[in-house]
Amino acid sequence: MICEGRVALVTGAGRGLGRAHALEFARQGAAVVVNDIGVALDGRGGSSGPADEVADEIRALGGHAVVNDDDVADWEGARRLIDSATEAFGRLDVVVNNAGFVRDRMFANADEEEWDAVVRVHLKGHFCVGRWAAAYWRDRAKAGEINDARIINTSSGAGLLGSVGQAAYSAAKGGILSLTLVQAAELGRYGVTANAIAPAARTRMTEGVFAETMRAPEDGAFDAMAPDNVSPLVVWLGSAESAGITGRVFEVEAGRIGVADGWQHGPTVDKGTRWDAAEVGQAVRDLLAAAPAPAPVYGTAPVTTTPGGAG
Questions:
Q1: Catalytic annotation on 190?
Q2: Which one is the CATH code of 7-259: 3.30.300.30, 1.20.1300.10, 1.50.40.10, 3.40.50.720?
Q3: Global pTM?
């Protein structure tokens, strides 16, 4: 068991990917904080039932779990979430930021409330939980304690490439990627690594929009879109074995694991002095001819994977 003795906190752990992650951490020996407020797909409502069920499953496996129903995007709620781990288990080693929901809308029809709600739970939620965890690990490091800690953030193919009809979701998931890079750069001194995943799996977010792709096989064949397929990578990233791997984004789907190659400095031309506006057009065309074409946005061309989804 690669996480024996570790304590993992998983947000949005009542269903889908989060549930799969929490159960796999338990199977690999970790004590688990199961966080979920039990909202509907669009973020409305709430129930402790899903989190309680997952915690009961972990205990039935012989593991240790506590339930937390705080809102990840609430500043004090996120602090209480970290406290729930340290109070129940005496420490915190792994944060898996997974909680989220969607409100799909074409960009020209999107409204402010939908935008704020989606960005709040995904991007602010990752910030709040990660911030309080980072403060906990920083204080331990300053007190002379040794951390071997992990932040694992959940982005999406929509965050990497964009997805038609999901402007807010795509923007939030793209922001999570940049946040991960900053966390990796700043927190290494405290013994903390930060990585992100861009998963594709069957969740409440994907099974309706991508019904045919997400359908489970009926013949007993490998269920490529089962959320359980994503969790081994997440749990390995949360283990001591992943030490030194930080600031990376992993795409994961079915039996495939890949490393995403994000924004890089591309072809450049330097005139050595100020450009005349009339000269810029040809210079830009030459640069674009030398640069690789961007990958298509999801929903604009056939793709072999789906944008994925958390929660």
A1: no
A2: 3.40.50.720
A3: 0.90
